Amino acid sequence: MAGDTGGRRPAWTDPDCPVARTADLVGDRWSLLVVRDAMDGARSFTDFQRRTGIARNILAERLRRLTAHGLLAQVDAPSGRRRLYALTEAGKDLFPVIVTMRQWGERHAFDAGEPHSVLVDRDGARVPDVVPAAADGTPLTSETTSVLRRP
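== Winged helix-turn-helix transcriptional regulator ==
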């Protein structure tokens, strides 16, 4: 597993399931919001706290854990007077997950006509729905896939 766990092996909810391991690492509300905000430009402790409203002690723990697991890295601020947080490649790899959650929320977590933020590309166009696709380009669903369990 990537990231420093302080020499401890994490207690996985389901050691053989990638979904469960991912949920163990980033499945709580605050961790996902920290990752979301890092993708949206938050870099300092203050940035994260202002954007999320999270209590300082909880934020400190989430930042520590996300850093220990290799999703965030601490970097020197240009002034050199403090440390900032930056997404690692592993953290950036969560982008499609965040987009998919956002799009699910747009469809299912708001009443019709209720205002919400919208994700747009650099030209200002709404980001199209993320849809998993087979090698031949056909859309995949839970009905067209299965999990191959390894012994």
